[in-house]
Amino acid sequence: MEKIIKAGLILEGGGMRGLYTEGILDFFMEKGLKFDHVYGVSAGAIHLTSYMSGQMGREYRISTNYLKDKKYMSYANVFKGGDLFDAEFCYHTIPDELDPFDYEAFTRYPGVGYAVATDLETGRPAYFKIRDVRKDIKAIQASASLPLVSNNVIINGKPYLDGGMADSIPIRRSIHDGNKKHVVILTRPYGYEKKPTSNLGLIAMKYKKYPGLVKAMKYRHIRYNNTLNFIYEQENKDNVFVFRPDPLVKIERIEKDVKKLRVLYLQGYHDAAINYELMMEYLNK
Q1: Distances (CA, A) of 88 to 7, 102, 152
Q2: Residue ranges of E strands in the chain
Q3: Please, are residues 265 and 20 in contact by the beta-carbon 8 Å criterion?
Q4: Is the pTM of this model over 0.70?
Q5: DSSP letter string over 101-124?
């Protein structure tokens, strides 16, 4: 039975750590939970699409079935075409041929989704409303395109990349949009603290045309940690409901161990199941 939830659902990125998010979203789909505002950043923007189209297990299948396929992801792709994740394969071949995306179901979703990208010229976040995945695929691609190993994604003549550089956890955007309740799915455990960007020198060299972006990356860890502190404060006030993975499951951004990914996915599903009643109690207050 479908349940429309008047709240913001916020999906952090994190590459393959997003399998934790996928486990939670699959449980939400089982329960028929549909949030009327969904915000996805980087990998979170990709998971957003299959959640809003109602395709359980799709992102898990893609993340594991093509994990060792060089057309999907390889550093050779960077040298050949500039993208670690081959754009044509990921954003066209898979959804149109190999694991079909339900474009029509997405358009029927009773809410709105946003993919967060970073404007390279300003270093500020851009919140793209996703109405039609075919037409708006560039916004999703931009949100999930990592710096240094991706080509700039051009939308309306402007360059964009990974949304996590400017707004990794857009809870303030959810508040700005008028949401009174917020469910946040993080991909880092409790107590995590982001360190300064280790490859800032490379960033500064490659993106010297974009000083706003370089500045955003220089202070990214400060913004990220401030946002986490804000979430902790709001959580203590019962203003937000947060999911976090167990710190014992060690997953790299580019993880190729399918067994580890399976454990992380199941942890997300389990966390959603055991916290379902608590979350619904929070949402129904």
Answers
A1: 34, 18, 14
A2: 3-11, 33-41, 112-119, 125-130, 153-155, 158-162, 182-185, 241-243
A3: yes
A4: yes
A5: --HHHHHT-SSEEEEEEEETTT--
Q: Residue 249 in contact with residue 260, Cβ under 8 Å?
A: yes
Here the tokens at position 118 are: 């970073």
Mean pLDDT of 262-269: 96
- A 10 A CB-CB count for 111 gives 16
Residue 62 parent element (H or E): helix 58-65
Q: Among candidates 71, 93, 65, which has minimal Cα distance to 83?
A: 71
What SS3 string covers 179-219?
CCCEEEECCCCCCCCCCCCCCHHHHHHHCCCCHHHHHHHHC
> Coil, strand, or helix at residue 128?
strand
| Contact yes or no for 48/97 (Cβ under 8 A) | no
How far is the C-alpha of 217 from the C-alpha of 213, rounded, in Å?
6
> In this structure, how many other beta carbons lie within 10 angstroms of the beta carbon of residue 282?
17
Confidence category of residue 252, pLDDT binned at 50, 70, 90: confident
Buried b (16+ CB within 10 A) or exposed e, 118-152: bbbebbebbbbebeebeebbbbbbbbbbbbeebeb
- What's the sign of the alpha-carbon dihedral 20, 23, 29, 31? negative
- The rounded distance, in Å, linking the Cα atoms of 210 and 192 is 29
Model pLDDT for residues 60-109, shown as the tens digit of each residue: 999 999 988 888 888 777 877 778 889 999 999 999 999 999 999 999 99
Residue 258, H or E segment = helix 258-283
